[in-house]
């Protein structure tokens, strides 16, 4: 039984490791935080209002842009955010 279990665990571990490596590479290339859909699961459960963006999907993008501008200004001043 152990002879059948070890290869399956090794394959599963490898797949998850590759998944996280590629997610990290994608984050480094795009420089955008991971985010979900605006109210995706909440709408399925009957909650129509998105608690993050207030039903305005552009608000999330504008907040990210503001954070990037603030980080850039802080970097120019030699401070960390």
TrEMBL record:
The chain crosses the membrane at residues 6-29. Keywords: Membrane, Transmembrane, Transmembrane helix. Pfam families: NqrM (PF04400). It comes from the Bacteria. This is (Na+)-NQR maturation NqrM.
């Amino acid at each position: 039984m152990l002879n059948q279990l070890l290869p399956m665990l090794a394959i599963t571990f490898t797949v998850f490791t590759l998944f996280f490596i590629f997610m990290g590479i994608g984050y480094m290339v795009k420089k955008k935080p991971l985010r979900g859909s605006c109210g995706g699961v909440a709408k399925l459960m009957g909650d129509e209002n998105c608690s993050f963006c207030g039903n305005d999907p552009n608000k999330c993008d504008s907040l990210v842009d503001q954070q990037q501008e603030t980080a850039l200004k802080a970097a120019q001043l030699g401070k960390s955010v």
